[in-house]
Amino acid sequence: MINILAACGAGVNSSHQIKTALEEEMKKRGYSVKVDAVVIKDINKAMMEQYDIFAPISKPKLGFDVQIPIVEAGPILYRIPAMADPVFDELEGIIKKLNK
User: Fold this and answer.
1) Which of 36, 32, 31 is nearest to 19 (CA)?
2) Is there a contact between 73 and 15 (Cβ–Cβ < 8 Å)?
3) Is-contact 87 21, C-beta < 8 A?
4) Can you give the residue ranges of the Phosphotransferase system EIIB component type 2/3 domain (predicted)?
5) Do β-strands 53-56 and 33-39 pair in parallel, antiparallel, or remain unpaired?
6) Of the options 3.40.50.2300, 3.40.630.30, 3.10.580.10, 3.30.559.70, the CATH number for the domain spanning 2-98
7) pLDDT in tens, 11-30
8) pTM score, two decimals?
9) How far is residue 63 from each of residues 38, 71, 74, 86, measured CA to CA in Å?
10) Domain segments of the chain: what residues?
């Protein structure tokens, strides 16, 4: 199981849309992922250590170095395959490298 942290400014809408899209697409591609959606301001280093991949709407400055792969997932929100597919492909590439 790959654990992914999705985040947006409010933690209400965009991060939940990203969560759903990542879970559905990665399932179609044959991967088992669990995605949690949070508010960016609530993220701390200890929280981040519980995840394999960070998928924010855009790359934030958190005040600490993120030690896991970051995939900017904002383009998924446009629901246009030409924009979303590269995000899914990047995520799949990282999942393959993690070999979990």
Assistant:
1) 36
2) no
3) no
4) 3-54
5) unpaired
6) 3.40.50.2300
7) 568 999 999 999 999 999 99
8) 0.93
9) 17, 18, 21, 28
10) 2-98
